[in-house]
Amino acid sequence: MLKQEFCYSQFDNLKLFMTYYSAQNNCQTKATLLYFHGGGLLYGQRDDLPEVYCQLLTENGYNVLTIDYPLAPEVKLPTIVSYLKEAIDWFLKHYQTTLGLEHSDYFLFGRSAGGFLSYLLSARYPFPEQKGLISFYGYYDLMSPSFSQPSSYYNQFPKIAPLAAQELIYPNPIAEVSINERFSLYLSGRQFGNWLSYLVSSPSEKETFSLTDTELAELPPVFLAHSSADQDVPVELSRIASSKIPNATYEEIEALPHDFDGDITKNEGLQAYQALILWLDKTLSTT
């Protein structure tokens, strides 16, 4: 597996990068997965997808392009989305000259908050080259009551007052920060029910950045994976999505935490990615 890094844009003094994971022979590529990381849109970094899954995908003909985006609350959702549109544009412009690909077929793929971004861009920035959408424990609806109410799960942990959490906000935009350094900001947001205030400028924007039933019905083929015991993003969001999206494949994992594929010692993660590859092959063969 080869790894290459490219700069696709710049925001003030912040350069935004991509990492391109490819098989040794690009000619065998079936499609490229444009990947958005999780972290509640407040933390994380583009290369958080365990290498074992990148290896599995590239061996089966699916290159992976992991993408930086500026994080909240230093910026709000409209800015995040605008740069990810630039990233998609970059791929469509450079797939041949820079990446050496024969075709520009792609899937949007995200985990958790990255799944939300994948939903949003699939609905609001569609291209014929996009063949499908992949969401691992993601969500499409910021209006879900669980996101605006104090979380019983997160309130089991020591309380972090909003003012203390806000000391973790940087003076300038960033695109990468570790979970250890900034999880407290997300934790506080979920404890006090004010997480979404870091993402949007007004309560009405929560609806603006939620997909309607009409938009769900018009999505390309979708692969969803979610654990029944998810303590962070309600599993009901993927269950409802799978019922409203006409061409949806849904894998429900039993009794594991939110990011069930993060523990590579457990078989469930590997099985989900093997199911994903079968779905990718089937989707491409029917489009």
From TrEMBL:
State whether keyword Hydrolase applies.
Answer: yes
The record's listing under InterPro entries reads: AB_hydrolase_3, AB_hydrolase_fold, GDXG_lipolytic_enzyme
Top-level taxon of origin: Bacteria
One GO MF annotation is: hydrolase activity
**Where does the Alpha/beta hydrolase fold-3 domain start and stop, copy by copy?**
33-171
Q: Provide this UniProt record's keywords sorted from A to Z.
A: Hydrolase
PANTHER family membership? AB HYDROLASE SUPERFAMILY PROTEIN C4A8.06C, ALPHA_BETA HYDROLASE FOLD-3 DOMAIN-CONTAINING PROTEIN
Report what the protein is called: Alpha/beta hydrolase fold-3 domain-containing protein
Organism of origin is Enterococcus ureilyticus
